[in-house]
Amino acid sequence: MFQRNADGSAALKQIEINTISASFGGLASRTPAVHRHVLNVLGKTKEAAKILSNNPSKGLAMGIAKAWELYGSANARVLLIAQEKERNIFDQRAIENELLARNIHVIRRKFEDVSEKGSLDQDRRLFMDGQEVAVVYFRDGYMPSHYSLQNWEARLLLERSCAVKCPDVATQLAGTKKVQQELSRSGMLEVLLPGQPEAVARLRATFAGLYSLDMGEEGDQAITEAIAAPNCFVLKPQREGGGNNLYGEEMVQALERLKDSEERASYILMEKIEPEPFENCLLRPGSPARVAQCISELGIFGVYVRQGKTLVMNKHVGHLLRTKAIEHADGGVAAGVAVLDNPYPV
Ligand code: ADP
Ligand code: MG
Questions:
Q1: Sheet with strand 246-247: strands edge to edge
Q2: Which H or E element spans position 179?
Q3: Residue 233 alpha carbon to ligand 1 centre in Å
Q4: What SS3 class is residue 251?
Q5: Cβ contacts of residue 66 below 8 Å, gap of 6+?
Q6: Which residues contact 11 (CB under 8 A, 6 or more apart)?
Q7: What region holds the Glutathione synthase substrate-binding domain (predicted)?
Q8: Whose Cα sits closest to atom 23 in ligand 1?
Q9: Which residue's alpha carbon is nearest to atom 16 within ligand 1?
């Protein structure tokens, strides 16, 4: 988000990193055409031409295809782990279709299917319904409620296999809010990027304030500050999928309840970003188009492929702009709060 500074300037600040089931790469590939069309209908051809092209589904498929290729078995499939009731299937299909265009076949299965019909051979090659699997792509498994005991066992089987995992457990954990808070500690980037002070400075400039709530003085102080200024902080548990963060009065109540308990260490505290609102029109099924005060949030898709300790691919493959009315603190597109949008460079 663009943080509005006291002097009127703006700086891009990172909200978070997602390393599992990052969605809307497929639909974001289609929205430039929608906005160009609308502008063309209005006779604004010059403006229409300024909408940036964007094709994350192609880039995400390229990353999965690279992993498939490294696995090295011409008939192996990509296994997409899907939810039982998936509302966002067309977003996923865009990636599947890009893979099919490269002659890579995708099979969609649930965790339950894996536990019933998945198996490993003696070389830990993964088979699903008799078909060898080269890459497992998770579009499920990022919330505790996604894991019954049976599903945990399925995840363990997938993890133990020699199929490429997008992501493996370690990479999924690296995306937790706790890890992001630890990365922002002074000296940490310097350890990870030795001899690259410019890169460290550029990265650090995107960090908002992030605070550990571990037991001890540092955590105590963060809690005191947040209770004194509830509008300046966000309380975040280790959860994904939107709707879990606490703001304002709710945050204060949670902090009062948690402050003497070790449970508080399972949360982090974050400085609240305040972007400059602007007027825009949010279009939703079932409600009339209306102009509202909005803020936007820019997402950048990246693909990262690693073989052992060798970095094979680390690329930016597109973007996602989500816009929401200012009255909503939390929540994305899937939660029904934000809408898919396009950046309009000026
Ligand atoms: P999740 O992993 O559940 O999506 P996020 O940390 O991305 O959780 O937060 C969800 C949403 O809440 C974000 O997309 C953003 O709109 C809002 N949000 C999160 N952190 C902040 C913050 N520090 N300042 C302002 N808004 C925030
Ligand atoms: Mg997230």
A1: 210-212, 267-271, 233-237, 246-247
A2: helix 177-183
A3: 11
A4: helix
A5: 303, 305, 312, 313
A6: 2, 3, 5, 205
A7: 77-174
A8: 272
A9: 330
- Distance in Å, CA 330 to ligand 1 centroid: 6
Task: Say if pTM beats, i.e. exceeds, 0.90.
Answer: yes
Note the residue count of the chain: 346
Q: Enumerate residues with CB within 5 Å of ligand 2 (an ion).
A: 18, 240
Closest Cα to atom 12 of ligand 1: 330
Q: Which residues have CB under 8 Å from 220's CB, separation 6+?
A: 259
The C-alpha atoms of residue 126 and residue 142 are separated, in whole angstroms, by: 21
Per-residue pLDDT of the chain (346 residues), as tens digits, is 999 988 888 899 999 999 999 999 999 999 999 999 999 999 999 999 999 999 999 999 999 999 999 999 999 999 999 999 999 999 999 999 999 999 999 999 999 999 999 999 999 999 999 999 999 999 999 999 999 999 999 999 999 999 999 999 999 999 999 999 999 999 999 999 999 999 999 999 999 999 999 999 999 999 999 999 999 999 999 999 888 999 999 999 999 999 999 999 999 999 999 999 999 999 888 888 889 999 999 999 999 999 999 999 999 999 999 999 998 877 678 777 899 999 998 8
Question: Token pair for residue 324?
Answer: 């929401």
Tell me, rounded to whole angstroms, the distance of Cα 251 from its chain centroid.
23
Q: Is the CB of 269 under 6 A from ligand 1?
A: no
Torsion of CA 35, 274, 174, 267, to 10 degrees: -130
